[in-house]
Amino acid sequence: MKKRIKKPKSRPANIQEESQFTSRETPYGKMLDLSSEEKLELVESLTPREKETFCILLGGYSLKETAKQLNIGYSTANTYQTSIYKKLHVNSRAELIINYRDLCDIKEE
Predict the structure, then answer these.
(1) Nearest-angstrom CA–CA distance, 27 and 25
(2) DSSP string, 5-55
(3) What are the tens digits of pLDDT across the range 56-101?
(4) pTM (two decimals)
(5) What angle do helix axes 36-44 and 74-88 make, rounded to 10 degrees?
(6) Angle at the Cα of 69 (from 68 to 72), degrees rounded to 5?
(7) What interhelical angle do 48-58 and 93-100 show, nearest 10?
(8) Could you state, in order of their start, the residue ranges of all structural domains in the chain?
(9) Cα end-to-end span (Å), the chain
(10) Which residues pair with 102 in a beta bridge?
(11) How far apart are CA 87 and CA 54, in angstroms?
(12) Distance CA 54, CA 71 (A)
């Protein structure tokens, strides 16, 4: 029997660590201490399809409704949501909304 050594997964250099951002706790989750410009920069790092998903999620739609609007499967919408959460340093829909709702008007197209 051969032994396999698991190599630690390295993170790409361009991905910022969550610990670089300061935050404070609220009843709904953490509130990131970011300026509008910093938030916009993070949102701009999303792919075009993730940006579409982001706008729909900010509108308060469920994941099932989001998938239907984008004409994709539920699991694909869930994958986009997970990627968005990771890139924007949030852990829930509530955190996404409290941190990025001020960009809603900017991103509506």
Answers:
(1) 7
(2) PPPPPPPPTTSPPGGGS-EEEETTEEEE---HHHHHHHHHTS-HHHHHHHH
(3) 999 989 999 999 999 999 999 999 999 999 999 999 998 888 888 8
(4) 0.71
(5) 140
(6) 55
(7) 90
(8) 23-107
(9) 58
(10) none
(11) 11
(12) 15
Residues 6+ apart with CB under 8 A from 91: 29, 30, 85
Which CATH topology does 23-107 take? Answer: Arc Repressor Mutant, subunit A (1.10.10)
Q: Which two tokens stand for residue 34?
A: 């970011």
Structure tokens at 16: 């910022």
Burial class of residue 4, CB neighbours in 10 A (0-12, 13-18, 19+): exposed
Six-digit token string for 109: 């197209």
Residue 60 amino acid letter: G
- Sign of the torsion formed by the C-alpha atoms of 89, 52, 28 and 41: positive
